Amino acid sequence: MEPLMKSIHPEEEKFRERYSRFINGLRLEDMFIEEGSFKRLILSIEDIPETAHLEVAVKPTNTEFPVLKDKQFEVRQTLSCSLKFVNKKKKIPLTKIKVSYYLRYSSEVEVEEKFFDIFQKRNIPVQIWPYLREFIGNCMYRMGLPPLVLPVMKIVNL
After folding, report:
1. Cα angle vertex 50, ends 49, 53, to 5°?
2. CATH code where residue 56 lies
3. HEC string of the chain?
4. CA distance to 39, 109, 141, per residue, from 117 (Å)
5. Is pLDDT above 70 for 2?
6. What is the predicted pLDDT for the residue at 142?
7. Could you give the strand order of the β-sheet that contains 26-40, starting from the edge strand earlier in sequence?
8. Domain membership flag for residue 158
9. Residue 81: inside a domain, yes or no?
10. Distance (Å, rounded) from C-alpha 17 to C-alpha 26?
């Protein structure tokens, strides 16, 4: 029978402890949209086949982490969202939405460059997701399209 917990290398355990202290001492000081755009790609949704379903894809296209002085750092995250109607025969693009967020954090502990890979994959998406939902919903409304609720974001252990 396999043990329930796998043993962790001592160096990895130390890194996890430092990362945990970093996260526990982290404060979001500022957050805003630096830039946003959207485009409706089809004029009439009546032409969409009834068998088509809506496919939503949200992808980070750029992330920057300039480290500032006094235990502060910035994050600039750009996300692209595409919505397509899909059926067995074809994909019909509905919209393209792009938004760039600026976030500034302060930390109680020294910021290590090694933290950013994990932080980018786990923490930033969790913090941005509610704002992204609102932005996409607002864009859909302004394009005269039905409301869209983004699916739940699921982050598995990395």
Report:
1. 90
2. 3.10.420.10
3. CCCCCCCCCHHHHHHHHHHHHHHHCEEEEEEEEEEEEEEECCCCHHHCCCCCEEEEEEEEEEEECCECCCCEEEEEEEEEEEEEEECCCCEEEEEEEEEEEEEEEEECCCCCCCHHHHHHHHHHHHHHHHHHHHHHHHHHHHCCCCCCCCCCCCCCCC
4. 31, 17, 35
5. no
6. 96
7. 26-40, 91-107, 72-86, 53-64
8. no
9. yes
10. 14
Contact 132, 79 (CB under 8 A): yes
Do the strands 53-64 and 26-40 form a parallel or antiparallel pair, or are they unpaired? Answer: unpaired
Domain of 67, in residue numbers: 28-142
Q: What residues does 35 pair with on adjacent strands?
A: 100
Structure tokens at 119: 């932080």
For residue 71, which amino acid is it?
Answer: K
- Per-residue pLDDT reduced to its tens digit, 57-78: 999 988 888 877 788 899 999 9
Q: How many whole angstroms separate alpha carbon 112 and alpha carbon 54?
A: 41
Q: What is the dihedral of CA 47, 36, 55, 62, to 10 degrees?
A: 140
Neighbours of 53 (CB within 10 A): 9
Decide: residue 20, CB within 10 A, 0-12 exposed, 13-18 middle, 19+ buried. Answer: exposed
pTM here is: 0.83
What span, in angstroms and rounded, lies between the C-alpha atoms of 100 and 66?
15
